[in-house]
Design a protein that fits this description.
This protein is of the alpha+beta class. The protein contains 3 helices and 3 strands; from the N terminus they run E-H-E-E-H-H. It has a domain of 58 residues.
Length: 104
């Protein structure tokens, strides 16, 4: 029987976790689920994505895989990587504004 193992508003994360499960041989599916309807009519509607596994026997393996994946996501820095400037920058070539007919 199918079992829901994860629920989040971050659809990209849920799809990433789905891919990890599938690549590990664990059959899974995602679906959009609960909706938070705002009190005001003009507010945004929030969708949540559910992650399900199809076989109860794979629950422990799926939970461990998700735990490892989410732990590694939490360990990633929450700030952008600062790139060092090129010590010897080269100027960019001038743009070529010729039409395709002029090139041939």
């Amino acid at each position: 029987m199918a079992c829901r193992i994860y629920l989040a508003s971050d659809q990209l994360l849920v799809n990433h976790l789905y891919t990890l499960l599938e690549k590990s041989g664990i059959r899974a599916l995602t679906q959009q689920a609960a909706v938070d309807v705002p009190q005001e009519e003009s507010g945004p509607v929030a969708w949540y994505s559910e992650l399900w596994i199809m076989q109860d026997g794979q629950l422990a393996n799926a939970q461990e895989l998700l735990r490892q994946a989410l732990d590694s996501e939490a360990a990633a820095p929450a700030y952008p990587v600062v790139l060092q400037p090129d010590p010897d920058p080269q100027p960019l070539p001038a743009p070529d504004f010729r039409t395709p007919a002029q090139l041939f």
